[in-house]
Amino acid sequence: MFALLKLGFKVSRIRFWLYLGGTYLLGYAFGVDNLNEFINIQFFFYLFLFMIPANIFLYGVNDYYDAAEDQKNPKKGEYEHKLIEQERKELSKIILYSFVFFIAAIMLNFDLAELILLVVFVYLSYTYSAEPVRFKARPILDFSSNALYFIPGLIGYHQASGLFPSWDVILALFFWTSAMHLFSAVPDIKYDKDAGIKTTAVKFGKSPSLFLCFLFWVSFAGILYFKIPLYWWIILLVYPLVPLMILIFSDIKIGRVYKIYPYLTGAIGFIFFIYTVFK
To answer: If we measure between CA atoms, which residue out of 98, 105, 123, 90 comes closest to residue 4?
Structure first.
């Protein structure tokens, strides 16, 4: 069992945990009226669900179906765990165990809207990498399916407030997750092309993809300009500035920027959490 847990943590991309768990936390924080609402079993269960089992499931499925292609990607082994053939059977068990937590969440949730969102999240998490759908190898659909990353935030917000964000906020979140996916795919253009994986980044190329990231993040920030105080909104300009600077200064290595990106997002998320809770 310890070996399974160890493998599960390796494939779960610990530095990415906040993309799902932190998104749920922020959504919940925006929906609560006071700090006492954080003290309930449902909140802690879902925070755990999206922080650990969800990441194990999402990235476990990804590693399982990408095992062959990942052997040629230098990012695997030095930056992320490189799955070996002997681990595939163990990984399938880990994926199943993590899926059990979603079954429990679905069975214990009696809100239809949240139930639908949970099902959509599991569906997108699996079909992003798994055959025959495999959204990751379908241009446009690859970054569109990355909407799964803001679903935990919608669930958290609805649990705390009984409401959903306005349509323009949801659109802003879609722009953010689309840019996030496309930006992360740019460093893998060569390896995805060699492996026959036709992502949006492979189809458009490096510079057009980075420019599209810039447009997505500008749209994200533009919508939120009318939603949050100016001094908080200025922080969000970091996102469109990142691809813009890479386009302007060719000596900036996108691979290096990509590695610090989760920490940048985590820091910005923490700032907004503090702002939301103590405003």
So the answer is: 90
- In terms of Cβ atoms closer than 10 Å to its own Cβ (0-12, 13-18, 19+), residue 44 is exposed
Question: Per residue in 20-62, pLDDT tens?
Answer: 999 999 999 999 988 888 899 999 999 999 999 999 999 999 9
Q: Give the C-alpha separation, 128 to 126, whole Å.
A: 6
Give the rounded percent of residues in the chain with a pLDDT score beyond 90: 61
Among 202, 212, 88, CA closest to 137: 202
157-213 confidence digits (pLDDT tens): 999 999 999 999 999 999 999 999 999 999 889 888 888 889 999 999 999 999 999
**Cα gap 149→155, rounded to integer Å:** 11
Strand, helix or coil for residue 93? helix
Residue 265: exposure state from Cβ atoms within 10 A (0-12, 13-18, ≥19):
buried
Question: What burial class does residue 57 get, using C-beta atoms within 10 Å of its C-beta: 0-12 exposed, 13-18 middle, 19+ buried?
Answer: buried
pLDDT of 106-132, one tens digit each?
888 889 999 999 999 999 999 999 989
Q: What's the CA angle centered on 205, arms 199 and 208, to 5 degrees?
A: 110
CA 217 to centroid of chain Cα atoms: 15
Q: Which residue has 């919940």 as its token pair?
A: 28
pTM, entire model? 0.93
231 by Cβ neighbours in 10 Å (0-12 / 13-18 / 19+) ranks as exposed
| Contact in structure between 252 and 246 (CB atoms under 8 Å) | yes
pLDDT at 100 over 90: yes
Q: Which of 154, 179, 202, 135 is nearest to 23 (CA)?
A: 154
